[in-house]
Amino acid sequence: MRPLKNKKSFIGLLLLICGTISGQAPSAEEKNSESEFIISRQANSAGQINFNLKKDVFRQEPYQASFEVQVPYQDIENYNEEVPYQVSLPYTDIEYYTESEYRCGYGSGYRLAHFEGHEHGGHHGGGYSPGYPQPYPYPYPLPQCGWILVNKLRYVTRYRTETRYRSEARTRTVTRYKSETRCCETRYKDVFDHSYGFSVSLKLPQVELFPNEFEKIGISLGGTESAPTFTLNTTGSIYPYVIAKQEVSGASVYLELTAEPKFDNKNAGYLSIATVEIRTIQGRSHLRLLDSVFGPHALSVYSYRITDPQHAFLGEGTAQSNGTNEVWIPLDKDLKGKGPAVIELKVVRTGSFIKNGGLSFSLFKGFVL
Predict the structure, then answer these.
(1) Which residues of 204-298 form beta strands (DSSP E)?
(2) Burial, 239: exposed, middle or buried (Cβ in 10 Å; 0-12, 13-18, 19+)?
(3) 26, 32, 117, 186 — which has fewest CB within 10 A?
(4) How many CA atoms lie within 13 A of 18 on its CB side?
(5) Are 170 and 45 within 8 A, CB to CB?
(6) Side by side, which strands form the sheet with 36-41?
(7) 314 and 228 in one domain?
(8) 273 located within any domain
(9) Are the beta carbons of 32 and 55 closer than 8 angstroms?
């Protein structure tokens, strides 16, 4: 066999044929590998970035391809069936019965005997004296015979019916299916038509980023060539950016982003304080808060005042958030055992995450010290 002169051309032709037969198109990632641009941003990153976005356009082309169908046919199937039958099995049992028997035995009888004596006091006295014979009864054995019922038992053989099963061969007609290749049907495949792209000029807003903070912003090209769309992916960003301005002029695009505030009165107001309580630890009382708004871009200042139900002053103070959702504020004296009390808590929030740069609210909580 002679070697191929153009091995790469042959492999390319083979891949083209296989792709045509299977009708599979390239994946979306392969098509749009240049349609998204990722921006990595730090505190010292530039506020203006220029880049290109490109998108491939594919058209649908028909082609003829063979296809498979499932054709039914009749077949004989052998199978075994469990058939019941009955057998009579012997077993030994005990039978109780009664039987009449003629039997003899001895009972007790009495006879009269005489002895010598005489009666005291004549015929009207109270006894007898020796010299006059008198009768008296005495027992003796008396033979007795007759028919009686006697309880007996014996071992007998009985029979019980038992159902058993045996396997018997059977045949039946079943419907099966086989695959047959037919020709032909029209299918469609994606064929590269052309590419289009835009030169993008992106303006980023000035936001507060600390030296150790890092964020990623993705911008992808969508829509059509005549009506392009641009989508932001902010899953890796610190700020929730949105496209505030978009201008398309031919193959040039100008985009301007703005950072939306994360917190306002709805999600950072009094409902964001989940817990307000006073705990005593090692003889000192602390005000404990659980706040869902925390972090370097949302600073909170807590001012509290504690009074009893008669408005008598028990304590007050001010503290700042510590970067976590749990805040412990030590009080200037131990309030354990002081009875019912009311705490007034005022919260002031500032920072780049807060709408309009800041907000404030107050809440009241009653409890027993």
Answers:
(1) 215-223, 228-233, 241-249, 252-259, 273-281, 284-291
(2) buried
(3) 186
(4) 6
(5) no
(6) 36-41, 215-223, 228-233
(7) no
(8) yes
(9) yes
pLDDT at 300: 95
**Would you say residue 180 lies in a domain?**
no
**Pairing verdict, β 134-203 and 252-259:** parallel
Task: Identify the domain containing residue 201 by its residue range.
Answer: 36-62+193-259
Nearest-angstrom CA–CA distance, 335 and 279: 9
Check: CB of residue 170 under 8 Å from CB of residue 23: no
Q: Is the pTM of this model over 0.70?
A: no
**13 is a domain residue:** no
CA 117 and chain centroid, separation: 116
What are the tokens at 123?
């015929």
pLDDT score of 133 more than 80:
no
Report the half-sphere exposure of 66 (CA within 13 A, side-chain side). Answer: 6
Dihedral sign, Cα of residue 140, residue 146, residue 148, residue 150: positive
Number of residues assigned to the chain: 369
Structure tokens given for 27:
């994946």
Greatest mean pLDDT among 28-37, 150-159, 279-288 lies in: 150-159
3-class SS of residue 294? coil
DSSP category for residue 354: B
Tell me the two tokens of residue 91: 């077993």
The residue out of 227, 242, 259 marking a domain boundary is: 259
Question: Which residue, among 304, 300, 269, has the nearest Cα to 285 in the 3D structure?
Answer: 304
Reading the block at residue 107, the tokens are: 């009972």
For residues 361 and 269, the answer to whether their CB atoms sit within 8 Å is yes
Dihedral over alpha carbons 264, 266, 269, 275 (to 10 degrees): -130
* Alpha carbon distance 92, 101 (integer Å): 27
Name the least confident of 75-84, 324-333, 354-363: 324-333
| Torsion-angle region of 58 (φ positive above 0: left; ψ -120 to 50: alpha; else: beta) | beta
CATH number at residue 346: 2.60.40.10
- Same domain assignment for residues 220 and 285: no
Residue 9 structure tokens: 């051309």
